[in-house]
Amino acid sequence: MRIFSLLYNTFLWAIAFAIALFQVTWLEMRVNIGWVLFLWALLFMCSFVKGWRFGQIGTTINLVGVLGFCFLILGWERLFAVPALIIREGLGLNRIPVDKINFVLTCILIIGLFSVVICDKYAAKRRIKNGT
Amino acid sequence: MKKLLFGVVLAVALAGGFSLLQNTAEAGLFKKSAEGLPVEINKAAKEIIMPAEVNGKYFTEPTRHGVVFLTGSNGEKAVLRGLSDEKQFHDALLAIGAKPGNNIKLNDMKAGPNNGKSVEGSKLDVFVKWEGSKGEIPFQNIIRATVERPMDIRFGGNLEAAQKANTGCVLCLDSCAVGITSNAAYPTGTTQHKVSEFYGRKDILPPDGTRVSVIFRLAK
Fold it and tell me: How many CA atoms lie within 13 A of B83 on its CB side?
């Protein structure tokens, strides 16, 4: 569970970082910004080694924060295009329509958040039951 | 130590999975042909037709690239993803009697906002058509520029630079030292200094991924 939560949260950071870099037109014109998603692996490794934990509150704050950040720098229209375009280019799946990537991304974000919340509640109940 | 090792293994697995997916995507389902599709040459009409696809990315993002060959390093950086090789396109232009300008060097790309150089060479009328389009749509109409000027596409040539850089550039939206054709209406330095920014027009172009034909006709 801790690993899943770390994967989810570090994925959000990697996306936010990629979106920030995407704003630099000079860089965007020359580099496949999607490669920045490889940073996900590094962020995950660091947070795992550091022993970080993200419960339901931390994950929700993280998601809202990253979405807010994306909205602030992208605006409404680009919010529904840029993250999907970065993922599409990063994975080399350039012929998959943006709508489909958006659908999968939304599913990952929603199901991921619910999974973290449910597992966190379940773990809390278990801790109470065990008196720890 | 155990934790570090486990973290490294998981991170490598994650990055490896990503890389594998990317390679599988490029080599399998969405295979890129190194040679691309052939361009259609009509010597009598002095025109070349190149197959391409709409890249929806540039409906909202600025770019300096109009058409770029899919396998070039800028393959994903254009409003239209060209499906034919830019060097083959260069030869096709020579075959219909177009004369390259070859007047812009890489150093000219460092120009400021007011001292840029405009591309020379035979003038080309460029159009786009697709299934369901109302005939041939002038290329100018599919591009939105923040500073509008009438499009003036020229056969810049630049074969040597194109072979060296392998960017895949077929049509650049401002004057360029690498693109086979580019727009003389905007001199070098236009994009670097944000004199004008260019976008694909969502209200005119068909949806992302739609196959289109780009028609290059030698101007009379």
Answer: 20
* 8 Å CB contact of A82 and B61: yes
CB contact at 8 A, B26 and A92? yes
H runs (alpha helix) in B41-182 = 86-95, 139-142, 159-165
Q: What is the pLDDT of residues B169-220, one digit of tens each?
A: 999 999 999 999 999 999 999 988 889 999 999 999 999 999 999 999 999 8
State the ipTM, two decimals: 0.71
Could you tell me where the DSSP H helices lie in chain A?
2-22, 25-30, 39-50, 56-79, 82-91, 98-130
A5-15 pLDDT, tens per residue? Answer: 999 999 999 99
When scoring B8, B10, B20, B70 by the number of chain A Cβ atoms within 10 A, the one with the most, hence best to mutate, is B10
Among A25, A30, A89, the residue to mutate for chain B (most B Cβ within 10 A)? A25
